[in-house]
Structure formats: C-alpha cells, structure tokens
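Bump. Still looking for Kinase-like domain-containing protein structure tokens.
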Amino acid sequence: MPYIAPEVLLGQKYSPAADIYSFGVIMAEMTTGIRPFYERSFDTKLAIEISCGKRPEFALRTPNCYIELAKSCMHFDSQKRPTAETIYNKLSEWHNFVKESDEPDDLDEFLSITLRKHPDIVYASMFINTHDIAQYYKEISDQFNIKDEIASASNNFEISIDAINQ
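Sorry for the wait, here they are.
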C-alpha cells in the first residue's frame, strides 16, 4: 500500500503519474533500506494518512537534490509530478557526475542493507475500500477547506502488491 499513489487510493484510475509516485516512494526506501511504514499495518487508517499527505522518511545525510526529486515524484497533485524522461535525465546527470568524480565508492556498504518487515503485513493482493478512504478524506478536506476533485471518488477495487524479498 505505501507505493500506491493517493489519487488511486481515493478511487481514481491508475495512470503513468501513479508509477512516478511509486518511484518516489522507492527512492525514499533506498535511502533507509527500510520499507516505508514497515512498522504499521497496511490498513484503511494508513491509506487515509497517505491520502492526506503522509510520506516516507529519508535517511540522514541524504543529499537535498535527491530528496527534492523524490518528493516531487510523490507530489499530491499528479499533474505536478515529473515525467519519466525528466527523472531519467536527472539520474543520468547524477550518474555522469559520480562517474567523473574521484571520490571512493561506498557501494558495498550501501548494498549490504537488509530490509526489515512488519510481521503482520501481507505483501500480496488485498482489498482496499476506497469509498471509506475517499469519504474520510472529503470530511477532512471540508473541515480544512481543502478543495480537490479526487475527494469524491467512491470505487472499491483490488490492488495487487507484489512481495519483495519474502
């Protein structure tokens, strides 16, 4: 569930921008080596929090340019997320900079990070009631005068979440 874009949790159709959101979550995960919200159950409460702006944390000493790119990928407004081409160009720019740098690599240490999992979380398909999420989000939006078209979504559907390193 942490990889699912807020608009999808609220019942909108899946889009390429939702993939960009997921990529931003993966970027955050790569800095910590810990799955986002691993200490929490993947339930309606978490879905509502994600829909209201909760995002994964970044590790200390993560470069600001990296955090900015990841946060732009996780922007609430799917129209404000970068395109795949923009991300590719930025990563290529960084890759070329690192390739030309004389700094030693700490790749071995970085790659040795072990992912932690919450014991009660199922990394598989699960039913998500987007009607409840959308309704709660609408109540919060109305309360704080947040105007957003996606607050009225009310579809139920099943989302497949593939397990990683089960």
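The domain at 6-163 is CATH 1.10.510 (Transferase(Phosphotransferase); domain 1).

Edit: fixed formatting.
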